[in-house]
Specification:
This protein is an alpha+beta fold. The protein folds into three domains: 4-62, Beta Barrel (OB fold (Dihydrolipoamide Acetyltransferase, E2P)), CATH 2.40.50; 65-137, 5' to 3' exonuclease, C-terminal subdomain (DNA polymerase, domain 1, Orthogonal Bundle), CATH 1.10.150; 142-192, Helicase, Ruva Protein, domain 3, CATH 1.10.8. It is built from ten helices and five strands; from the N terminus they run βββαββααααααααα. The protein has helices at 32-37, 65-75, 82-91, 94-102, 106-110, 117-127, 133-137, 142-158, 163-176, 182-192, and strands at residues 4-12, 16-21, 24-29, 43-52, 57-62. A five-stranded mixed beta barrel has the order 1-2-3-5-4. The longest helix is centred in the C-terminal third of the chain and has 17 residues, at 142-158.
């Protein structure tokens, strides 16, 4: 397994790179997220994932380990192949994907081209316990976010609104403002319901 690659950047496009390592050029598939983080420096180092199939060996490159770890978690989900996982990482940054999984925001995951409702739900179900937002940011903890979400949903239930109806509104508010307080979530939800 090739776990990282270091060399000279020969070609660069938003979807792939060619890296020269001691005279051998490696074609490395990348996400738009990785592309946006790369500098114009000729020296390059990427974390990689090698996908071996009977008819091809495909190398995927990532700017940091957390993006590679998320990629590996995504391809472990039934129905998500390497191309779809790369599309997800190109459409949303790793933090947005992890936040959508942890807050069970199906619509955000479903907004990625090629992902339908059932696949988005499967991603959430299979990865909810495996994803941790602190992995990628080092500082954000989702536990406070989940606690605010749960308190707001419980309060809205007490007020007579169904959990199914309020979940979508609450998740949308949290995605727009991750630092939102429970009181604001409830107040803004009541205005939208």
């Amino acid at each position: 397994m090739i776990t990282h690659i270091k060399g000279r950047l020969v070609e660069k496009s938003p979807t792939e790179l060619v890296i020269d390592c001691n005279g051998i050029g490696y074609l490395v598939n990348i996400s738009l997220n990785t592309f946006s983080l790369l500098s114009d420096s000729e020296a390059i180092s990427l974390y990689t994932h090698l996908q071996v199939k009977e008819d091809s060996h495909t190398l995927f490159g990532f700017f940091d380990k957390s993006e590679r770890n998320l990629f590996r978690k995504l391809i472990s989900v039934s129905g998500i192949g390497a191309s779809t996982a790369r599309t997800m990482l190109s459409s949303l940054n790793p933090q947005e994907i992890q936040r959508a999984i942890l807050t069970e925001n199906v619509s955000t995951i479903q907004s990625v081209k090629g992902i339908g409702l059932k696949t988005a739900q499967r991603v959430i179900i299979e990865l909810k316990d495996k994803v941790n937002l602190a992995d990628s940011t080092g500082e954000i903890s989702i536990s406070g976010l989940n606690q605010n979400r749960e308190e707001a949903l419980s309060a809205l239930e007490v007020l007579g609104y169904s959990r199914k109806l309020t979940s979508k509104v609450v998740d949308e508010l949290i995605n727009n403002d991750p630092e939102i307080s429970v009181e604001k979530i409830i107040k803004n939800s009541l205005n939208k319901l």
